[in-house]
Write a structure and sequence with these properties.
Elements lengths: L1 H18 L14 H9 L3 H10 L8 H5 L3
Length: about 70
């Protein structure tokens, strides 16, 4: 699955780069892919990261999620 995600992100990056839409500071839209590329590099899913925190940092409690993941 990660291989497919990597291919899709590469296609998205190339397409956004070709669009060449820049903001006032000169950055193009590829910056919006950075969070996805970082997750892909870690080879994790959001669910896996939450489970890791549940079993480790949160010591089996779901209560911290309401403070840490609320927006």
């Amino acid at each position: 699955m990660f291989e497919i995600a990597a291919e899709v992100l590469a296609l998205a990056r190339a397409g956004l780069k070709r669009r060449n839409q820049r903001d006032a500071s000169g950055k193009d839209e590829t910056r919006y892919l950075e969070v996805l590329e970082a997750r892909l590099a870690r080879k994790t899913t959001p669910a896996q990261e939450l489970l890791d925190r549940y079993h480790n940092a949160w010591r089996g409690s779901v209560d911290p999620i309401f403070g840490e993941e609320a927006f």
